[in-house]
Amino acid sequence: MIVWLNGAFGAGKTAAARELVELLADSNLFDAGLIGVGLRALLPRKRLDEVPDHQDLPAWRRLVVDTAAAVHGEVGGTLVVPMTLLRQEYRDEVFGGLAARRIPVRHVLLDVEETILRERAARRWDAGEAPGDAVPGLFGAAAGDRCPDPVRRPAAHHRVPDWLRADAHTVDATFLTPRQTAEKVAEAVRAGEGACDIVQTPEPTAETVAAGVLLFDETDRVLLVDPTYKPGWEFPGGVVEPGEPPARAGLREVAEELGLRLDTALRLLVVDWEPPRPPGYGGLRLLFDGGRLTTEAARGLLLPGSELRGWRFATEREAAGMLPPVRMERLRWALRARERGVTLNLEAGTPVGA
């Protein structure tokens, strides 16, 4: 198990984590900030200057998952991770990667009043300390004004996003010592609080075939879903199981993900070969036309909380701001194929043989 202590710079995550490992049997401290330190020593300055924080590096997020899984495999038990995760898509990527490795996560937010955070941050900057997990948006202006490195300078406000309060178990640590905070966290963990019920989708070990289904409302907006286990929005669908016809896989996934049983035959819109991009293996990606949903049918959609947190209909322009570029390119060609009544063969998102 991993206990992830989230919160602002100055909330006392690391101090509480050190106390927590003494309270939870068979537990060890895992400092994910060291991975950022290592990348700053390994990557060229040009690349570092391109990102405001080391968490924006895909390598950091991948290494946190891989390293935590490797350390967990070595020592077992519980890893206590004091690290701010402000962006929901990064939470999805990291926690989803851990879930894929069958490592459950308990997510705890240490909440501290803004005035206290400002005072603590100012003292630490004056003492020459730099945060190991600085993330814009969770820090006081006093800390930001004193930050010597503009790349690491936090935004001049303190805000805990709504998704984080909803996702994590909150412990008010404003007037608690690190030991008292750790005792509150240990009590919550033993009671099962903060459990992140994320679908444990095994990571592929070879190329896969995946079937997605495009569903439309009465104005031809496309239905997109928001997975809990990976960043970005997605189409309803999933991996085709061995021996399963792709169209039947699409119908099965729609039933499992949305509680919707389609009684019409699916029409294939695009076949897209996705090249391997480490750590992914690529494979064939098929998109089918599932037809239009009535308003009544849309109201009856049911989401599995461990897999999807939401759904919405989106125009093509809106989808461009929600889908990762690879999926958006696939959607664009699927919509063109639907308009023309044809099936398109794509390789890496580009039509071939047409």
Description:
With 354 residues, the chain is an alpha/beta fold. The chain has 13 helices and 15 strands. It has helices at residues 13-23, 33-42, 45-48, 58-75, 88-100, 114-126, 141-146, 162-167, 178-190, 246-258, 295-299, 316-320, 325-340, and strands at residues 2-6, 27-29, 78-82, 105-111, 138-139, 157-158, 169-172, 208-216, 222-227, 237-239, 267-274, 283-292, 308-314, 344-347, 350-351. Strand 11 (267-274) and strand 12 (283-292) form a beta hairpin. Helix 4 runs parallel beside helix 5 (88-100).
Report the sheet-strand fraction: 15-25%
Largest sheet, if any? Answer: 6 strands, mixed
The overall pLDDT, averaged over residues, is 86
Work out the radius of gyration: 22 Å
Helix segment tally: 13
pLDDT below 50 for ≥5 consecutive residues: which ranges? Answer: 132-157
> Secondary-structure element order, as H and E?
EHEHHHEHEHEHEHEHEEEHEEHEHHEE
| Total E-strand runs | 15
Topology diagram in text:
Blueprint: E1 2-6, H1 13-23, E2 27-29, H2 33-42, H3 45-48, H4 58-75, E3 78-82, H5 88-100, E4 105-111, H6 114-126, E5 138-139, H7 141-146, E6 157-158, H8 162-167, E7 169-172, H9 178-190, E8 208-216, E9 222-227, E10 237-239, H10 246-258, E11 267-274, E12 283-292, H11 295-299, E13 308-314, H12 316-320, H13 325-340, E14 344-347, E15 350-351
Helix pairs in contact: 1-9, 4-5
